[in-house]
Amino acid sequence: MVIILNFGSQFAHLIARRVRDLGIKAEILRFGATADEIKKFNPAGIILSGGPASVREKGSPRPDKNIFTLGIPVLGICYGHQVMAHMLGGQVAKGRHREFGKEALAVTAGKNIFKGLPRRQTVWFSHGDQVVKLPVGFFGTAKTGSCRYAAFADEKRKFFGIQFHPEVTHTECGKKILKNFLFSVCRARKDWAMDSVAEGIIADVKSEVGNAHVVVGISGGVDSLVAATLLHRSIGNRLHPVFVDTGLLRKGEVLQVASYLKKHGFARLHVIDAGALFLKKLKGIADPEQKRKIIGHLFIRVFERTVRGELKKYPIAYLAQGTIYPDRIESASTSTAAAKIKSHHNLTLPEKLGLKILEPIKDLYKDEVRRVGLALGLPRELLWRHPFPGPGLAVRVIGEVTNERLAILREADAVFINELRTSGEYEKIWQAFAALFPVKVVGVMGDARTYEYVVSLRAVDSIDGMSADWHKMPNELLEKIAGRIIGSVRGVNRVLYDVTQKPPATIEYE
Ligand code: XMP
User: Fold this and answer.
1) Which residue lies with its CA nearest to atom 7 of ligand 1?
2) Which residue would you say has higher pLDDT here, 329 or 302?
3) Which CATH number fits the domain that encloses residue 376?
4) Fewer CB in a 10 Å sphere around the end CB: N or C, the chain?
């Protein structure tokens, strides 16, 4: 495995994903992790990520200097490249030309990380500083027009630095550079394949849980479904999945997930029909944060009641949940709302119930969760659903949530998603959904004037939900979807397509 020290880069997760895609487990640690902590992982290599700081600033982040005496190969990227040079006796200065964006790189020593790669290649820069003097034992391995040491190496100690970002797709040979580092320099062996990862998790859960029983919350989404499947393979019917139907899921979703689980032997599935209760508590509430709070608290109450009631007779010792890697790893780029909601549940429920926590997919990225699901035999149709917020349709009915509005939104959203699926557009999109605006506008149908709701369609391309671009949808498809929504969903007479990026907008409307 490989350790990535995170210096606050928005790309640390991207580096980890690239490394994992090459078949090597990557673990992100804070930049200050000590050499002793790192040694415990027995890593084949260490990668120092980029970051927004300047090594020339007082108090800018530094790794433990002892990582350079462990005898483990190190690859510094951008800030990581600069901090390594600085700490080992080189010099970093403000670049004469600030290099941002694409640059032409000239490789001067085509071995090690540049082995087998073209002498000229396009790379992506994003930092104002550069290394101007190398530490003793180092030599330059690549340059650009305005950056003399765009890459350097100390072959003896196996230290490498690159000023550019190999993890982004704009860097032409980025994947090959990482591959060279992992396999030629670090001599890492591939050990990160999803079927063996699944087997490992199942074995770990078995040995941790022993003969105890486990309760797991099913949200209807992909993560909790995969987590529950892994748990079921480990402990069979000592698993108690609790599916709280908040009445805020997409059309047909509760039935789809519940019948899949029942058909696949989850004998102790409890589906709690709490739709009316959620709606009652949401009555008259228009403020988004208040809605979220009400839903979060109510969810915990219903869950707790179920565990203390129906499940009381079982020796339940663990509460399992589908926390995934980005939810857990603290970094500037992972404070998603989803993470906050999950951690919120995390903090209160187990304490209240006196249960230990079990997080079987806590080391996996979303795409890995999906691939583990595939390895377990879960259907693609369930696994490749778009992300869905915890508070569900309540934050997509803008303003007050009513039964009527929920019903209209559910239908409009189903038409949208079905059309995306049949046209093959669905899997090209990070997230697509309909939202209902609580305003009525004038239209004309037949000879009569109508006065009905506005539906906005949102479809975005994104890597992790932190930033997003609106999806460039074929016009004919959009027109067809709008026509079908107006034609088949009562209560809507206008359909909008949202062409705002995030930032400045968010993906959701509330
Ligand atoms: P925004 O709207 O902040 O959304 O651009 C980014 C991603 O987070 C999801 N999201 C949520 N997930 N609870 C969740 O579990 C929430 O309250 C919540 N709000 C937004 C959103 O769907 C998108 O994928």
Assistant:
1) 465
2) 302
3) 3.40.50.620
4) N
Tell whether the model's pLDDT for residue 306 goes beyond 60: yes
506 falls within a domain: no
Active-site residue flag, 167? yes
If asked whether residues 120 and 154 sit together in one domain, one would say yes
Q: Is residue 507 a part of any domain in this protein?
A: no
CATH of the domain at 455: 3.30.300.10
For a mutational test of ligand 1's pocket, the pick from 250, 508, 510, i.e. the residue with the most ligand atoms closer than 8 A to its C-beta, is: 508
Asked if 322 contacts 361 with a C-beta cutoff of 8 angstroms, the reply is yes
- Euclidean distance between CA atoms 458 and 366, whole angstroms: 21
Does 179 share its domain with 201? no
Q: What average pLDDT does range 162-167 have in this prediction?
A: 96
Residue 98's pLDDT band, with cuts at 50, 70 and 90, is low
Helical (H) or strand (E) element with 14 = helix 12-21
What is the distance between the terminal CA atoms of the chain, rounded to a whole angstrom? 40
What confidence tier does 387 reach under pLDDT thresholds 50, 70, 90?
very high
State the distance from the centre of ligand 1 to the C-alpha of 508, rounded, in angstroms.
6
Which of these is catalytic: 86, 165, 386, 471? 165
Looking at the chain, the whole-number percentage of residues with pLDDT higher than 90 is 87
Compute the average pLDDT of residues 337-366.
76
- Give residues (CB < 6 A) around ligand 1: 292, 336-338, 341, 387, 389-391, 431, 465, 502, 506-508
- Ligand 1 centroid from CA 471, angstroms: 17
Closest atom of ligand 1 to 468 CA is 5
**What's the whole-model pTM score?**
0.87
Average pLDDT over residues 281-299: 96
How do 159-162 and 270-273 pair as beta strands? Answer: unpaired
Of 13, 27, 78, 345, which residue is the catalytic one? Answer: 78
**Are both 176 and 203 inside the same structural domain?**
no
Q: Are residues 107 and 251 in the same domain?
A: no
Q: Are residues 344 and 436 in the same domain?
A: no
**CB-based burial, 329-362: b 16+ in 10 Å, e otherwise:** bebebbebbbbebbebbbeebbeebebeebbbbb
> Same domain for 408 and 269?
no
CATH of the domain at 109: 3.40.50.880
Whether 147 is catalytic is no
Report the distance separating Cα 172 and Cα 163, nearest Å. Answer: 15
Q: Are residues 427 and 489 in the same domain?
A: yes
Q: Count of domains in the chain?
A: 3
Q: Are strands 448-461 and 469-470 parallel, antiparallel or unpaired?
A: antiparallel
Residues 245 and 375 in one domain: yes
Mean pLDDT of 365-381: 95
Residues in the chain: 510
Q: Is 165 a catalytic residue?
A: yes
Q: Given this model, what pLDDT does residue 337 score?
A: 46
Q: What is the pLDDT of residue 349?
A: 83
Among 336, 413, 462, residue to substitute to test ligand 1 (most atoms within 8 Å of Cβ) = 336
pLDDT digits (tens, 9 = 90+) for 29-67: 999 999 999 999 999 999 999 999 999 999 999 999 999
Q: How many CA atoms within 13 Å lie on the side-chain side of 360?
A: 37
pLDDT score, position 409: 98
Domain region containing 168? 2-185
In a domain, 388, yes or no: no
Distance (angstroms) between ligand 1 centre and the Cα of 460 equals 13
